[in-house]
Design goal:
By secondary structure, the protein is of the alpha+beta class. The protein folds into three domains: 62 residues, Molybdopterin biosynthesis moea protein, domain 2 (Alpha-Beta Complex); 67 residues, no CATH class; 216 residues, Hypothetical protein af1432 (Orthogonal Bundle), CATH 1.10.3210.10. 43% of the residues lie in helices and 10% in strands. The strands form three sheets. A four-stranded antiparallel β-sheet has the order 6-7-8-9, with helices on one face. It has a three-stranded antiparallel β-sheet with strand order 1-5-2. Strand 3 and strand 4 form a beta hairpin. Helix 5 crosses helix 6 and helix 6 packs across helix 14.
């Protein structure tokens, strides 16, 4: 059984599991219950004036963190077949802090005259991250610029959308526009009543109808400010539209939905699925991918393919559990088959070429 106890924030160390949802002065969640703390989160709690929190000594978590012992002969096999991941988006700690401060400013200072300039600066930081290492893939688990859901979600969606846009073949200007729209796609939520925005349970139908207005509010806010082109404005307005006409706010369908919005829609859905909220558990990355792959009537199939070719689900060197019960180390990702990388069993040394070997057809990563 886990031991739950209070601890002074200044005495916290990374790896502790939080046993309470910690709110800021405005009632927004700073850290969700069950989160595993890192140094960035601890620094944020100290800045917010949180002096003490409850943590738990989670035996299961500590067991997961134990280093996997791999025999020498198995390690030799791993080294023979290992292939580095495609270049992914990487943000330095300095950039993460700048982007984190920038996105917090945008959502708290929507009437500031420097709003558009700050948006350009934040997007520019993300654009540089793509250009510095010619990034063509993204592992969103490594981005983490904030512990506040709205801020983190906005940066995740912007970054992922830019990678998808680049894979899709858009030019740099269009990729930047997609990034700006991704950053601001939820800016209209600033006009949604906080009791609805921060409700811990599922929204009622009437509450959800109010929440739906955030897309229109965001469009109106940016149009009033000026300085945002139609691609950005329509990306914000239409990011909840669906190709089959079941989306909102205008129930558009097919090509009536701007490409920028179609790109953001995929990134937005994926990040929402894999992120834990106070009112829902997160869904595994694998299940989230499969859910998106089933949405062919709602999402642009070509954008979806660009997404599937861009997201790193199981980074090389990560340890996974196979459906046959064996633990395995990921040694190669296969573009187009993100659910089926090549792995090596850490005890047997067997090479499982999940995307190529028919004998592995019944084996999946759990």
């Amino acid at each position: 059984m886990a031991d739950i106890h209070p601890i002074r924030t200044e005495d916290l160390s990374s790896g502790k599991v939080v046993d309470q949802t910690i709110l800021d002065a405005n009632g927004k969640a700073l850290v969700e219950k069950g989160s595993i703390l890192d140094d960035f989160q601890i620094e944020g709690l100290l800045r917010a004036g949180i002096t003490e929190i409850y943590v738990r000594d989670d035996e299961e978590h500590h067991d997961d963190q134990k280093e996997t012992v791999i025999a020498k002969n198995v390690q030799e096999t791993i080294e023979k077949v290992r292939v580095e991941d495609r270049s992914g988006v990487s943000l330095t700690e300095d950039v993460k802090h700048r982007v984190g401060r920038g996105i917090q400013y945008l959502f708290s200072s929507t009437n500031d005259e420097n709003f558009a300039e700050t948006t350009q600066n934040v997007t520019g930081e993300l654009m540089k991250a793509l250009e510095n290492n010619n990034a063509i893939a993204v592992d969103i688990g490594s981005l983490k610029v904030s512990d506040e859901y709205t801020f983190k979600h906005s940066v995740d969606v912007a970054t992922m959308s830019m990678v998808i846009a680049r894979k899709y073949g858009l030019d740099d200007r269009s990729v930047r526009d997609v990034g700006i729209a991704g950053l601001l796609h939820d800016i209209g939520k600033m006009r949604i009543p906080t009791d609805i925005l921060n409700k811990p349970g599922r929204l009622t139908d009437s509450e959800f109808d109010i929440m739906k207005h955030h897309a229109t509010y965001g469009y109106e806010m940016l149009k009033e400010k000026g300085g945002f082109n139609d691609s950005i404005l329509l990306g914000v307005l239409q990011h909840h539209e669906k190709l089959n006409g079941t989306g909102y706010p205008q129930r558009l369908s097919g090509d009536a939905i701007h490409l920028c919005a179609r790109i953001i829609a995929v990134a937005d859905i994926y990040d929402s699925l894999v992120t834990r909220r106070s009112y829902k558990q997160k869904i595994s990355k694998r299940d989230s991918i499969e859910m998106i792959m089933a949405m062919t009537s709602e999402l642009d199939i070509f954008v979806m393919q660009s997404f599937l070719d861009s997201v790193i689900l199981y980074p090389v060197d990560s340890i996974v559990t196979l459906s046959n019960g064996e633990q395995a180390k990921v040694v190669k990702n296969n573009p187009g088959f993100m659910l089926r990388p090549t792995v090596v069993g850490v005890t047997s040394g067997r090479v499982y070429r999940l995307a190529e070997d028919l004998s592995c057809a019944s084996i999946v990563i759990l």
